[in-house]
Amino acid sequence: MSSKYLVYAAKFLSVLFAPFYFPTLAFLILLVFSFMRMLPLDYKLFILAIVYSFTVAIPLITIYCWRRVRKVPRHKLSQREERTVPYLIFIVCYATCLYVMIQMNMPHFMISILAGASILQVVCAIINHWIHISTHSAAAGAMVGALLAFSIIFHFNPTWWLCLALLIAGCVGTSRLILRRHSLLEVNLGLGVGLLCGFFCILFL
User: Fold this and answer.
1) Per-residue pLDDT of the chain (205 residues; tens, 9 = 90+)
2) Distance between alpha carbon 118 and the CA centroid of its chain, in Å?
3) Helix, strand, coil percentages for the chain (3-state, nearest 5)
């Protein structure tokens, strides 16, 4: 494979597995593969719409408006110094979504997904002051950690799901290295932080 197609593949993976998609993906998996699949379709779509709105649509639109007002080029958001405001926007949106889900009396294990995602955003924002941590790898790591935690909660064998999650995490981390957006240390740090947050937040919150 030529380097050009390798870069295209890395860009595709970075967009497909962008960190803000993972909460919606987690809810989608639970609504399709857990006992919650018995819920009415319109209610499941309503839940997904709320999660998608607060974790993807609203923060991205807000960040876009902020960029236009501040005249911050898109490529500058990859720089550590310019990521503080986007982090704060995502944290506020995730916390708001968490509050809404609590008010809706959602099952505890679903609320813990948003709690874990919110805590992960805070941890990454703090670490970002010292090192440009990879949020792509952090989100992928959180997916692996959450899967392990859910396997304990629901008592199922996660082997095949775990293989898929680790494959995705490896591909995402590799794509960030190919695009030269992060160093190996930043990717591994993100993966480790995400795995720990995903596992302990789901299991103990």
Assistant:
1) 557 788 888 889 888 889 989 999 999 988 888 788 888 999 999 999 999 999 999 999 998 898 888 776 665 555 555 678 888 999 999 999 999 999 998 888 889 999 999 999 999 999 988 888 999 999 999 999 999 998 998 888 889 999 999 999 999 999 999 988 889 999 999 999 999 999 999 888 7
2) 10
3) 85, 0, 15
**What is the residue-wise DSSP string for 3-41?**
HHHHHHHHHHHHHHT-GGGHHHHHHHHHHHHSGGGGS-H
Q: How many domains does the chain have?
A: 1
Burial class (CB in 10 A: 0-12, 13-18, 19+), 151: middle
Determine the structural domain holding residue 101 and report its residue range: 3-204
The C-alpha atoms of residue 133 and residue 138 are separated, in whole angstroms, by: 8
pTM of the model: 0.88
